[in-house]
Amino acid sequence: MLTLHDTQRTIDDRQQAITIAPIVLRCSIHGVEKPFPCEQCGKKFSTKDDLNRHVRREVAAKQFTCSICNATLREKIDLQAHLATHNGEKNFACDMCEKRYRHRSSLSKHRSAKHRA
């Protein structure tokens, strides 16, 4: 049995060693009670700091609301890209062919797959 003070053990016939401290730490984290629930989404946290970080990042940060479907987004640019899904705009054009896309990431994927660019 591995203990907290064991730092390395062999794991197979090639005699590869691993550090187990992160594994022990991860196991102890997963066994912790989570008494701090988010009032907005119900997700639970083990510390008040983790809950506050979640609220700042996930809940309070979503301040841009779509006027069509009430979706909430963190950034103004995300809202603009989202609005394009409602009005059919395709503002990102491939400079090598006639294809157009709503999202820059879709154009990048297209260029990589079709034009090796």
Automatic annotation (TrEMBL):
Gene Ontology terms, MF aspect: DNA binding; DNA-binding transcription factor activity, RNA polymerase II-specific; zinc ion binding
Keywords attached to this entry: DNA-binding, Metal-binding, Nucleus, Repeat, Transcription, Transcription regulation, Zinc, Zinc-finger
Stored SMART domains: ZnF_C2H2
Keyword Zinc-finger applies: yes
PROSITE patterns reported in the protein's UniProt record: ZINC_FINGER_C2H2_1 (PS00028), ZINC_FINGER_C2H2_2 (PS50157)
The C2H2-type domain, residue ranges: 36-63, 64-91, 92-117
InterPro entries, A to Z: Znf_C2H2_sf, Znf_C2H2_type
UniProt-annotated location(s): Nucleus
A single Gene Ontology CC term: nucleus
Pfam families hit by this protein: zf-C2H2
Family the UniProt entry places it in: Belongs to the krueppel C2H2-type zinc-finger protein family.
PANTHER family named in the record: MYONEURIN, ZINC FINGER PROTEIN
Protein name: C2H2-type domain-containing protein
